[in-house]
């Protein structure tokens, strides 16, 4: 299983971005997928997760109402739509897979597959 994230960039506060994570391999259909981020000098933190069939999602409080995670099983892709971006959202965003998981967890250690991150920079 390989993950490839894309869609980062430099935007202004209030702008939107959509991140994509394409997953290779059949395991995608039974995986919990999540986005994490890590800002310079800070710990990696959970942003959002989605269950394998899309029937459940989980968000960190600071992004609720602004970010939306979704998945397209036909395309083996998970998305993170980020609206009303704030300077504090600046970070490297990485997608991760918890293979054959039943529930979403915010614990990074549960995710065994990681993609290379994509940088999101939000200017004030």
Explain what this protein looks like in three dimensions.
With 124 residues, the chain is mostly beta strands. The protein is 0% helix and 49% strand. The chain has strands at 2-6, 9-12, 17-24, 32-38, 45-50, 57-59, 67-72, 77-82, 91-98, 113-114, 118-123. Strands 2, 4, 5, 6, 9, 10 and 11 form a seven-stranded mixed sheet that branches. Strands 1-3-8-7 form a four-stranded antiparallel sheet, with no helix packed on it. The protein is globular and about 40 Å long.
What is the strand and helix layout of this fold?
Layout: E1 2-6, E2 9-12, E3 17-24, E4 32-38, E5 45-50, E6 57-59, E7 67-72, E8 77-82, E9 91-98, E10 113-114, E11 118-123
Parallel strand pairs: 2-11
Antiparallel strand pairs: 1-3, 3-8, 4-5, 4-9, 5-6, 7-8, 9-10, 9-11
The pLDDT mean sits at: 94
Helix-strand makeup class: mainly beta
Number of helices: 0
Radius of gyration: 13 Å
User: In total, how many beta strands?
Assistant: 11
Low-confidence stretches: none
What general outline do the C-alpha atoms trace?
globular
Query: Tell me about the biggest sheet?
Result: 7 strands, mixed
- Assign a percent range to the helix content: under 10%
> How far apart are the termini?
37 Å
- What series of H and E elements makes up the topology? EEEEEEEEEEE
Q: What is the beta-strand fraction?
A: over 45%
Oligomer state of the chains in this structure: single chain
Short overview:
The protein is mainly β.
Characteristics:
124 residues; mainly beta; 7-stranded mixed beta sheet; 4-stranded antiparallel beta sheet; 11 strands; 0% helix; 49% strand; globular
